Amino acid sequence: MTVRSRFAPDRGLTARMGLTMFLLGLLYVAFVAVLIALLRSWVLVVVIAAGLLAAQFWFSDRIALFAMRGRIVTPEEQPQLHGVIDRLCATADMPKPRVAVSRMDLPNAFATGRNADHAVVCVTTGLQRRLEPEELEGVLAHELSHVAHRDVAVITIASFLGVIAGLMVRFAFYSQLFGGRDRRDDDQNTAALLFAVMAVSALVYALSFLLIRALSRYRELAADRAAALLTGRPSALASALTKVTGDIARIPTQDLRTAQAFNAFFFTPALGPGSTVANLFSTHPTLERRLDQLAEISAELGRPAP
């Protein structure tokens, strides 16, 4: 499941990705079967599902860059950024992804793309401005490990079912809201049908949400570990985590909500869970959990923890 590279392999991540895709696949088949039975139009369901999956899979990198106001940059435009990624890719012995910059003050980074040959690593100008070179190297190594482990593509595909289910809930809700008030008695079956579609879609969305969140938290820990081992400087990555998390906490909430939809792809979440219970549904492990792991790696490497 990983691109051939010198990034430390993670069998736990590989097993979790396989299990998540298998369970989501079963859920997806059941979801489509129920929709076909309810809507009695398998052609419509299959065409819509296949079209949205293809769009999300093939254009995920463009969608993410557009939403985050990112732009592909050349080595002439960003020599320092390209230089760090060149060194990391050479060290990891992996193909170099495209490099993008988002002109946002939000300090963050993300990787996207359906495979290593079509991957993009994007950093914000806010991140570049705040981090020291060795801290930026740690963050970029973290993002490159997502590409090498192929968990970016898995998360992109896995999130598809949740997107479909969410759209179906909204479609059924608004259809009932705006189209159900003036129905006659002989149209009550239509209202019941819409309610059934909404209920099934909501259940599927909830299950896929939990599966994706569990995988997302583990893949962030796996990326931290792989990046720390590749660079040999877990303290630099820990420093970047602490600095970025603290700076994000000082950004107004309204400025973060537009980026919250991409939390699963970010180095650190734009908006944290805010409570112990909410941590169970977060896309990222807690800062304390990530720092503890990096401290353990520092001890393994014989270097002092930050």
UniProtKB/TrEMBL annotation:
Write the record's keywords in alphabetical order, separated by commas: Cell membrane, Hydrolase, Membrane, Metal-binding, Metalloprotease, Protease, Transmembrane, Transmembrane helix, Zinc
Active site residues of this protein: 143
Ranges of residues in domain Peptidase M48? 75-297
Q: Where does Zn(2+) bind?
A: 142, 146, 220
Compartment(s): Cell membrane
Q: Which cofactor does it need?
A: Zn(2+)
Query: What note does UniProt attach to the cofactor annotation?
Result: Binds 1 zinc ion per subunit.
Give the highest taxon in the source lineage.
Bacteria
Write down the membrane topology. Multi-pass membrane protein
Record-listed E.C. numbers: 3.4.24.-
Q: What class of enzyme is it?
A: hydrolase
Spans through the membrane: 12-36, 42-59, 152-173, 193-212
A Pfam family annotated for this chain is Peptidase_M48
One example of the protein's molecular function in GO is:
metallopeptidase activity
Q: InterPro entries, alphabetically?
A: HtpX_protease, Pept_M48_protease_HtpX, Peptidase_M48
Which HAMAP family does the UniProt record give? Answer: Pept_M48_protease_HtpX
Regarding protein family, the annotation reads: Belongs to the peptidase M48B family.
Its protein name is Protease HtpX homolog
Its lineage opens with: Bacteria, Bacillati, Actinomycetota, Actinomycetes, Kitasatosporales
